[in-house]
Every structure is written in structure tokens, then in C-alpha cells.
Amino acid sequence: MKSKKWSHYTRVKYPVSSSSLHPFNFFVPIVERVQEGVVSIVTEDAPHSKNVDSLIRSLINEEEQPNTTERSFGSGFLFHPKGYILTSEHVIGKSKNIYVKLFNGRVFEAQRILSDRVRDYAVIKIDADCRLFPLPLGSSAHTKVGEWVISVGSPPVAKEAK
């Protein structure tokens, strides 16, 4: 896939809002353009006891411990229309359950496809019954040191799913 130059985005006629009229808000139209491809990720796992004393007490104590789950939050982005999402490996880790929340507010359970702890990336997949808005993957071969970068993550949820 061919990478688009910055000039491509500056030539596009974006909808004008009062906040985007300020000359330093040139990232606003870009964020508005990609927000539907960015997802929030929530993972659930059994809580990990880091305190040795509490671990020993739980093994000795025969009383039932409350069944709680530990939640972690992160973000990722859709890169394929069939529901493939790129995120960081540290976001999903060894979690038992992975949930993905789209910009429209819909939530789907995701399955782990692959992950690399050393390079800190992971691919997960959702089976969505709605249209998805994947973002194109770029190439670092077309970038130069000193170029600006934006990171868009954990999007706010749209008020009403239509």
C-alpha cells in the first residue's frame, strides 16, 4: 500500500468547526478522519497477588476468597475490514478475556491471533456484524527523522450508535 504524503492531508477539504479554525489545531481534522478505526481494549484476568504474606494466608485460609477480576485498559486500531486489530502485547498480556469497544459504542469479545512480547505487538480479531473502518498501514521507509507523529488512542464513545 502506498504511503500518503502530508500534503495529501492538507489538500483535503475537511469540515470546519470552531475549534479547528485555530491555526495550531491542524491535527483535529486528522483525528476526526481516523477516529472510527481506533478502538478501546479492556482485558480481564484473575488478580495477581504481589504480596507473599497475602498469598500464604489465602492458601492456609479455607474461607472462600471473593471472585474478583483484574481489568486493564489500552487501545489499538483496525487494520483489516475482517476485524483484525493491531495493539501492543503489553495491553493484552496473558489475559483470559479481551473486549474491544468500537467508536460507535459497540463491544465485541476478541480472540488473540498472534503476539510478540519482545517487539511488543499483538494482533487480535473481532467478529463484528457491522461495518468496520480499518486504517491503512504505513511504512517507516517513507519517514524522516524530525517528522511529526500523532498517537490516537482510547477514543471517546460516540453518543448514539446509528
UniProtKB/TrEMBL annotation:
Keyword Ligase in annotation: no
SUPFAM superfamilies linked: Trypsin-like serine proteases
Kinase in keyword set: no
Keywords, sorted A to Z: Hydrolase, Protease, Serine protease
Pfam name, any one: Trypsin_2
Listed name of the protein: Trypsin-like peptidase domain-containing protein
Source organism per UniProt: Brevibacillus brevis
